[in-house]
Amino acid sequence: MALLRAISLVFVIVVGTGCQLGYYLHSAYHQTKINSSREPIERVLKSGKVSDAEKRKLRLVQETKKFAEEKLGLKKSRNYTSYVKLDSPYVTYIVQAAYPFELKPYEWKFPFVGKVPYKGYFRKELAEKEAARLREQGFDTSVRGVSAYSTLGWFEDAVLSSMLKYEDYDLVELIIHETIHTTLFIKNAAEFNERMATFLGREGMILFYRETEGDDSENIKKALADSEDQRIFSTFLSRELEDLKKWYEERKGQTDPAAKAERLSEIQKRFLTEVKPKLRTSLYDEFGRRTLNNAVLLAYRTYEYELEDFAKLYRHFGGDFHKTLAYLKTLEKSKKPDQKLKEFVSGLGAAASIPGVTSTVAITF
After folding, report:
1. How many Cα neighbours within 13 Å face the side chain of 205?
2. Contact 269, 261 (CB under 8 A)
3. How far apart are CA 68 and CA 6, in angstroms?
4. What does the pLDDT read at residue 151?
5. CA 167, CA 194: separation in Å to the nearest integer?
6. CA max distance for the chain
7. Average pLDDT over residues 131-140
8. For residue 82, what are the β-bridge partners?
9. CB within 8 A of 167, min separation 6: which ones?
10. What angle do CA 158, 204, 201 make, to 5 degrees?
């Protein structure tokens, strides 16, 4: 998860203001604890502290890091050269909130990173306490655990034990995803940053396996199935969120919990009857089981909304990862990078709009 822990570096700057002092102290303490627990991966590989399966995954991280930096052109760093054994299944817990009768996120503001639609806690009970406080104020809320995050280069990010539970191709995607955050970060554009890393992380992972295993590998097959499911779900979610936004706007001023619950139930039913039968993987099964509210929907939006814009850009550059990333870097100073991207891809013509799996062209090194 990007952005969440960069604030721990700067807590001393804001202590004087008294703003969220307890939260900054919490973040700084736990980030320092993680930093002090790091052990070089090379030393871990020579020890008996981890299983053979975990050693294999640590070597996969090393290989992915090298590929991301040398072949994809992502920022070189000391990230993922050390390992930390956690005492919990997640490293942090994310709180998200939304206005109850408006598809609008509650946002927190932090130095340097700007506004973000989520807030992370290292302890689950603190995340749930924050969610309860927001619910008392009338907001919809969502709390979930995450296995990794990026400090955007402020610290040397370690491989966490929580990351090693992933399937191989998910772990490769995660490392590339987080390295993209370190490479390019646009202030006050948290959702754009996450969608960009979601799309490029998956494309980078596919390129990794094409290079290391070939097009017929099982990892490629799984990755392409996931990618196609992501395209289908993103198209569904984007349409549903636009329709729901209009529904709220048409009922502006009305606060009818029963009508809202029925409307959200309709979204879930359409997913189960129209979308899920088309999916080849279990990637989005949870969407059909969760109790939906605006915060839950916006949590999905953070990562899955209008990914087709990035796909069109990628196709425009012929599947060239470097050129795609270079264009996205031109948006770094933009106040509305999502709008700039949409305007750009809207003018590309029919070739960029061909539907289907996005990564059909190998990268040129």
Report:
1. 29
2. no
3. 22
4. 78
5. 21
6. 64
7. 97
8. 40
9. 222
10. 60
Confidence of residue 349 (pLDDT cuts 50, 70, 90): low
In tens, the pLDDT along 269-294 reads: 999 999 999 999 999 999 999 999 99
CA 180, 185, 190, 191 torsion: positive or negative? negative
- d(CA 159, CA 58) in angstroms, rounded, equals 8
Tens digit of pLDDT for each residue in 179-203? 999 999 998 898 999 999 999 999 9
Q: Beta strands of the chain (E only): which ranges?
A: 39-40, 82-84, 92-98, 108-110, 114-116, 119-121, 140-146, 159-160
Residue 115 has pLDDT above 50, yes or no: yes
**Confidence (pLDDT) at 154:** 77
Q: Which two tokens stand for residue 211?
A: 């290079």
Helix 190-212 to helix 308-316 angle, to the nearest 10 degrees? 50
Q: Output the CA torsion 61→64→68→70 (10° steps).
A: 110
35: amino acid identity, one letter: N
201 SS3 class: helix
Amino acid letter at 62? Q
What is the pLDDT at residue 253? 76
Token pair 């606060």: residue: 255
User: CB neighbours (10 Å) of residue 257?
Assistant: 9
Q: What's the CA angle centered on 196, arms 194 and 197, to 5 degrees?
A: 65
User: What is the pLDDT confidence band of residue 155, given thresholds at 50, 70 and 90?
Assistant: confident
144 beta partners: 94
Residues 141, 95 contacting (CB under 8 angstroms): yes
CA distance 47 to 262: 56
Contact (Cβ atoms closer than 8 angstroms) between residue 84 and residue 161: yes
Task: Please write the tens of the pLDDT for every residue from 200-249.
Answer: 999 999 999 999 999 888 999 998 999 899 999 999 999 999 999 999 99
Helix (H, G, I), strand (E, B) or coil at 102: coil
